[in-house]
Structures are given as C-alpha cells and as structure tokens.
Design brief:
268 residues; single chain; alpha/beta
C-alpha cells in the first residue's frame, strides 16, 4: 500500500479527513522550502503538495504565479525540486509528497527519467495540470510502474466520460477543482461541491480532495464534511509573502493548525 493510500486509510479509521497544503518549491527562496515543508507537517499536514515552479502556470491565480516567479528567479528547476524531496526524506519518511506542476519541465527532463528519479528520491504522487488523462496513458503507466500515483483534476464542468477516464488512469486521490477559475479565487460554491462529490464518488474508487478557494478553517471544515481531503494553497503562500523568512515557518504552522483544528471539530 502506498504512503498516500495508508494516510487515507488511517484517517478514515479515525473519522478524520486529509489536510493537503500546497507550497511552491523555491519560494520565497530555495533555502526556506525544507523548513516550510516541516512546518506544514507540524501544523497537521497529512499530504504535502509541492509545486514545481513554471513560467506559465495557467491554472494558478496571481498569488501562486508570484510564487513561481520568485522561485524561478533563484533558478529553481525540476531537478532542484527532486533534490529538495530527497533532503526532506532524510527526516520524514512518512508524509506523502505530491509534485504538482506542468508538462514542459517533465517533457524536458524525459518522462521515463523523471518517473525513475521521482521514485528514487521519495515522491509519492504527481499531478500535471496540462496532462489530460486521455493523452497520457503511457506517462501514467510509467508512474504506476515506479509505485507513484498519477493524480488528475476534475472540475464542475467535467463530463461523465472524463470522470471515467480519470478513474481508469489515476491513482492516490482525485483533485476536485471546486470552481471554474484559477487558484486563490473566493467564489466557492459549497452547494455545487455538495452536489458534485456524490456523483464523482459513485464513479471512482479513490478518495476525493477538494481545492481552489479554501481560505479558512470554517470553509475547510465544510468541505471536509463532503470530501475526503481539503487542499489549501494560495492562503498559505500569502502567509509566507507577509512574513519574514525567520517568521514564515512559525506562521505557516499556526495557520495550518487552526485549519486542522476546525476540520477535526467539524467532521466529528
């Protein structure tokens, strides 16, 4: 059983839901990534989504775009990110790490080489925003052969066919985008999420994490009552932006701990 599957199984047995924070690797500077990852775990993270910076992050709003720009200014590359995961694994062998990014860096690296190296350093899952399931059967197979989970996005506009394709090609969990827009939006329609999740759950055999537009503990708790996991990204990066490098890990831990507490209180 993969680390991701183990986490969801453990949480289900406890009547709890997964807290899945996102940060961009190399932001605001490469030396802060490992302390921030450890701060996320200290705050209650169950799975970490680690963004691979890219120059044209089309699914991301201004906050995460700025994070990518800062990381790229330091020369943060896909190889850099893999090296960060390797260092993280020296102290943490339990927390799953999912790389989230775009196709270009992986294509430049080489799909097979990337899958091999990602598995070697301790990556658990890969979410590539612009790899639709119907066009990356070979890549999904490469990941699965290495014990990595290929994670796909679903949206409010996803058709039954797309849901079935994701169910067949994916692994780990489904990332349900709670709105039609970019990350960081505040236009979260909880009623729509409540309507869509059961229909998706009926077609897929994986846990469902919900992200985009989740900015506080109250909203996270309401999402946790509907789904198996809650993804929080832009709000964490805003906290980093508003902090000095020395303060950022502590403030991120405090922010995540508040969300964790609200989720646990809300779903019991």
């Amino acid at each position: 059983m993969s680390r991701i599957a183990q986490v969801f199984a453990r949480l289900k047995s406890q009547g709890r839901k997964a807290l899945i924070p996102f940060i961009t690797a190399g932001d605001p500077e490469p030396g802060l990534t490992l302390p921030l990852m450890r701060a996320l775990v200290a705050g209650g993270a169950d799975i970490i989504e680690l963004g691979v910076p890219f120059s044209d992050p089309m699914a991301d709003g201004p906050t995460i775009q700025r994070a990518s720009e800062r990381a790229l200014a330091y020369g943060t590359s896909l190889r850099t990110v893999l090296a960060m995961v390797r260092e993280f694994r020296k102290q943490d062998g339990a927390t799953p790490v999912v790389l989230m990014g775009y196709a270009n860096p992986i294509e430049a690296y080489g799909q097979a080489e990337f899958a091999a190296d990602a598995a070697l350093v301790g990556v658990d899952g890969v979410l590539v925003v612009d790899y639709p399931p119907e066009e990356c059967a070979e890549f999904s197979a490469l990941l699965k052969q290495r014990g990595l989970d290929p994670i796909f996005l679903l949206a409010p506009t996803s058709t039954d066919q797309r849901i079935s394709e994701v169910a067949a090609a994916g692994g780990g969990y489904i990332y349900y985008v709670s709105l039609t827009g970019v990350t960081g939006s505040a236009k979260l329609d909880l009623d729509e999420v409540a309507r869509r999740i059961p229909a998706i759950r009926a077609r897929v055999g994986m846990p469902i994490g919900v992200g985009f537009g989740i900015r506080d503990g109250q909203t996270a708790a309401r999402i946790a009552a509907l789904a198996d996991g809650v993804v929080v990204g832009s709000r964490i990066i805003e906290e980093v932006e508003q902090s000095s490098p020395d303060e950022a890990p502590r403030r991120v831990t405090a922010l995540l701990a508040d969300i964790r507490q609200a989720m646990d209180a809300g779903v019991r």
